[in-house]
Amino acid sequence: MHIMTVCLGNVCRSPAAEAVLVRSLDEAGIEGVSVSSAGTADYHVGERPNPASVTEGERRGYAFTTRGAQFGADDFDRADLVLAMDSSNEDDLLALARTPEEAARVVRLGAFAPDAGEGVRDVPDPWGLSREAFVAMYDQVEEAVAGLVAAIREGRVEEVVTAQRARR
Known about the structure:
alpha/beta
């Protein structure tokens, strides 16, 4: 299984989600899942993640190896699950989907948060904001990733994806 985390510029939220997910899968002993990240825009292609995001992530023990990339329609050929950070990213990804099957792979990361309930929480973009915004972003990403890892372990990923798709 290959999972892609996607935000706007691929320097704050999606690299953070990638780092959190990589470590969480490793800690859970889940094998056979690879993770990468991308942005829906080309603003930061080739760049390292945002320094404020890296600082907070490293403070929490995460490692960052990614460089900014832009999500393209061809990425659906390798991604089994595409995790959008917010509804705008989700809309951009759905516009790139060439088939209903590709569109069905797109879900917001917040759908996996334990308190998602009937609504799906967006992960707000901390770009240009204070350190506290990055702390809050990581708290939210960690919570949703914990839910995703539990769903993978319990075989409930498709159930969550289907439920969010029904709310679109």
